[in-house]
């Protein structure tokens, strides 16, 4: 086992609180090889995971392979774009400063890059829920013409021919043959380790050291609980639903969830994003139209547009939006900044190098 993999094993073991003793595995061919298991911990203040880990048990070797694939530009047509190009760790694995995603040749997409965290708790992915399995998630950006623009079969072929991968696949799966299942499961294993649960807010909830909140932050938490948790529920800070939050229709005319279901009731509905690390994941909304949290709250107080599918929480007794005073806005923003997980953003186990 190489030094980098050993270091990764130590880091993940510390996160999970479990030992990392090698476990023998016998694949279909009857050849026994050893992998080092990783136990993904559930934070005490989180609900149960949605992902079935029994179908893709995490190992140090599998996670290391997935991480290598995640940061490899080989998976784009002109070898210039990796998954990590758009999903930048310092920005909560979003794409800082860019309203819309952009890929090879400077092409722009139609939506803002969502952050990546706590994916083990997700059942549907992308702003419109167009992917319903984490294991299938990478296929879309790899093949998307304005992102990585490479046929998935060619991506597998390139990986198979690249000299650095046979040993990595063999270590993770007992075979150096690159298959669709192995490729996708490896990336999933890395993505599953991206757990963000050590913000100052988390420490406050769990009564841990470093969990002190200021009076303004506590006041903001109270306002948030009263006025924001209809959508941003649980300590995941999302209920994973799709809602029309009253944005005007932009030039792209993105109809959101409707493009997937074709149900009229889903027009202009988008997945409720998590607010974890929201201080770092600007710009905001599905099209990145708001650069600051102040602009976001101003939208909810005075910018909500009525439409047939507007979420009922944003039209109560005929009044559009959410009533917030200027003081309450400042307090809510102060609270939202307590959701920044510095350990997550700086964790070298998640970094390219």
From TrEMBL:
- Gene Ontology terms, cellular component aspect? periplasmic space
Q: Where heme c 1 is bound, by residue?
A: 83, 86-87
Listed binding positions for heme c 2 are 228, 231-232
User: Where would I find the Cytochrome c domain in this sequence?
Assistant: 215-340
CC cofactor note: Binds 2 heme groups.
Q: Name one Pfam family in it.
A: CCP_MauG
Recite the UniProt keywords alphabetically.
Heme, Iron, Metal-binding, Oxidoreductase, Periplasm, Peroxidase, Signal
Which GO molecular function entries does the Swiss-Prot or TrEMBL record give?
cytochrome-c peroxidase activity; electron transfer activity; heme binding; metal ion binding
Write out the PTM section of this UniProt entry: Binds 2 heme groups per subunit.
List, separated by semicolons, the cofactors it needs.
heme
Cellular compartments annotated: Periplasm
Which protein is depicted?
A: Cytochrome-c peroxidase
Lineage of the organism? Bacteria, Pseudomonadati, Bacteroidota, Cytophagia, Cytophagales
